[in-house]
Backbone:
């Protein structure tokens, strides 16, 4: 038995440091937990990896469309930074009609936004990587103001591409080589913090394929 939180941190820390390492390890932990609850998605990712990337090559990561969709679904449902806040530079009026002053702080819940049926549809709370894939099998690009995991507009996260690179690299290599099952009875509880991580990590049994 191993704590996947610790394993994810070890893997991601090879590429990053500081806050980026913590957010990526948090996202990977929720990612593998979601896959443990959706074994069909796990099998689809493994088949995709074995077919489109028989040997690891970073250039082939863009071919892993279903894996990319699964990562996006994880970030939508369990954003590593669950809250953000904005302050207007001067008095303004929001699209909703609400007036805001320059000394106000507007708190945005990324967690709530990712689960709003008015934004994502009636299946907003479901883990469905297919929502990120078009009928032609290509990735669907959602507007940044809808998918706010990396902020939006001119203040979008500069590390977005690197984040996807790291998460897909770690996920592909683990899924290719191991079966992962969450320890029976293990409780997954989020920590009420600026970083959306699991209270006790994710305890799993790992079997070499």
Residues:
């Amino acid at each position: 038995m191993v704590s996947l939180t610790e394993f994810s941190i070890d893997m991601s820390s090879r590429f990053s440091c500081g806050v980026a390492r913590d957010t990526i390890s948090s996202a990977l932990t929720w990612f593998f937990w979601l896959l443990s609850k959706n074994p069909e998605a796990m099998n689809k990712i493994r088949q995709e990896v074995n077919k489109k990337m028989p040997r690891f090559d970073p250039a082939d990561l863009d071919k892993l469309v279903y894996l990319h969709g699964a990562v996006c679904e994880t970030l939508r449902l369990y954003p590593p930074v669950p809250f953000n806040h904005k302050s207007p530079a001067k008095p303004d009026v929001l699209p909703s009609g609400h007036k805001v002053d320059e000394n106000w702080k507007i708190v945005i819940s990324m967690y709530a936004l990712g689960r709003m049926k008015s934004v994502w549809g009636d299946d907003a709370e479901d883990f469905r990587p297919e929502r990120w894939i078009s009928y032609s099998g290509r990735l669907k690009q959602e507007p940044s103001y809808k998918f706010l995991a990396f902020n939006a507009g001119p203040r979008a996260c500069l590390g977005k591409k690197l984040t996807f690179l790291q998460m897909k690299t770690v996920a592909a290599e683990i899924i290719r080589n191991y079966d992962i099952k969450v320890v029976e009875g293990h409780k997954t509880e989020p920590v009420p913090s600026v970083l959306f991580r699991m209270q006790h990590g994710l305890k799993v049994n790992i079997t070499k394929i």
Observations:
- The mean pLDDT is 88.
- The radius of gyration is 18 Å.
- The first strand starts at residue 2 and ends at 3.
- Residues 83 and 109 are 5 Å apart (CA to CA).
